Each structure stands twice: as C-alpha cells, then as structure tokens.
Amino acid sequence: MTATTFKPIAARPAPVNTEGPLAWVKANLLADWKTTLATLIIGGLMLWLVPQILNWAFIKASWLPNYEACRVEGVGACWGVIAEKYRIIIFGRYPFDEQWRPLVATVLLTGLLVASCMRMFWKAWLSVLWLVVLAAFFTLMHGNTLGLSQVDTDRWGGLPLTILLASLSLVASFPIALLVALGRRSSLPAIRSFCTIYVELIRGVPLISVLFMASFMFPLFMPPGVKIDVLIRVLVGITLFAAAYSAEVIRGGLQAIPKGQVEAAATLGLSYWQTQRKIVLPQALAMVVPGIMNNFISTFKDTSLVTIVSLYELTGAMSLALNSDANWRPFVIEGYLFIALIYFVFCFSMSRYSHWVEKEVNKSKQK
Length: 367
Known about the structure:
This protein is an all-alpha fold. It has a domain at 80-94 and 151-365: Orthogonal Bundle (MetI-like fold). It has 15 helices and one strand.
C-alpha cells in the first residue's frame, strides 16, 4: 500500500474589492495606462483652471449693484448686474409696479407642473385644475378685469413667457404627436400620406422659419379685419414643430412592438383602438421615454427663438435689460451665466424626472 503525501494548495490572492470609492477610482480612472494618462491630463487642467474660475466668480467678484465698482482693475465677475437688472431679466417689459402679477402667475403655473408630475395628483380633477390655473394665469397676466390694468401680450416676457410657451406647447403637442405617429402607420393611404407630409414638411425647416411664417406670413392669409394675437400664433407654431419631432420618436416605439402582439389582440376580438390603448401604446411609450423627454428639453430651450418675433422671453429680456443701459452692457457674460443657471435648473429637473418615469415604467423588466 502506497502512502499518500499531503500537499497543501497554494494560497490564492484575496478577492479584489469592487465596492467603495477606491475601487471606483481604480475601475473608472486608473483602469489602464490610457485611462490613467487621460485622468492625469484632465486632472492637471482642472487643477489649473478651477482655482482661476473660483477666483473670478467668487473671491474677486463684485456683488454690489454699482457699475463703477465693477470697473475697478482686478475685479472679477460683476454679479451686481444681476442685482440691478434681475427684475427686467425675469419679467421683461412688464410694467414695473405690476410685476407681482407675473410672479404670482408663474408660481401658480410652476406649482401646477410640479403637481402634474407627482403620482398622488394623477386624478380626474387634475384636468379641471389645469383649466383653473391657466384661467388664473391669463387673468393675472392680461388683466382688464377684477380691477387689474390691462397689459397686452407684446409686453409679456422673461421667465413667465418662457414657462408659458414651453408648458402649453408640450402639453398640446403630445396628443397631436400620438395621433400623427399612429397615422403614419395607418393602412389608409390618405391618412398616412397626410401625416407623412406634415412631419417631413415641419422637420425640413428650422423652428425659426416656422416662427417667422406664423408671425409675419400667416396674417397675410387672414380675411380683412381678422387678427390673431402674436402669442397665439407663436404658441401654435412651437406646438406643431414639437409635435412633428415627438411623433417620430413615438413611431420608433410603435415599430418596436412585435406584430404578433397585435395579431393576438385581434384574435381576442379587441378593436383597433382597444389594441392601441391597452397593448401597443403602453409598451411603445415606455420604450421612448428618454427620446420624448429629450424633445421636451429641446423645446423648452428653443423658446429663446421667439425673440425674432419681438417676444422677449428669458434670453431676450436679458439682452433687452443690458443693451438698453450702456453702463451695464460690458457685463453681458454674467447675464448669460445667470439665465444659463435658470435653464439648467429646469432642464436638469426634467432630466431627473425622465429617469424616474423610465424606472417606474420598466419595473416589470427589472430583475
């Protein structure tokens, strides 16, 4: 009988820690020599650039609304221009003594938008609340009732106009986009051709052309004596433009649904609209949430183009506030940074909400 000699197994290395900040740095910033080199280059640039930005934006910045103090040699950013001109930037050419009205109107509309994004408010009365808040918004902004002085729409501007154009155009464009996307997949040639022509015609021109046509060309085709307010014309133009782009995003989701599901629904006796409402659209819309939100964010930023038709929204109001005062005109960079921060807050909030919606609608696919 042969004796068996015990041979111990060599010790294995300890498992690599894949969690924690050090593991994240190693995996994302120091994974190989190329990544390490890029990290060192970018890190060096940041170490050189960030202190200069902080020094200009905060340490040496002037915060007082005094343009003479901003012109002293060695002074950094002049945030005093925001302290001096913020009311014109936020409210545009709206009468100075009546600016409490657009403030209250903007708070109401923004609160309505936030409530509409929360599941607890998804009730039947939400549509009634929209009508009430919109009526209050236009009553406050336009006036000529309840003892309020009348302010024409050509004097509306700033943040209230930006939020109004973006919210109404997005809300109105979504059902149009839904119908157009379904129409492009219709078996009826007339409907399919009409929807295709609409989408290709709108997407073939920039938004600035649509606004120009809505503001200057459309009134020429109206009967004598008939005049439609420029705000309504611009709102219709932005709505149709946003609907065309959203329709293509939704159509992509519709094409991703397997044909077998539609055929299965037909065998169960479901009608076309029942099939779309209960089977096709819920899945299609869940697939294209990022694309739809991307279009919404783009539309929100595109409202800055309405300046071409003399509606001074946030960007136009900022230019109006600084260009009309030679003392503050050199500090336009600070003005643009201020409105960029406002745009970022709204767009980032929309992006995070999109992530939440995408996560909720895809819960059934998560392991």
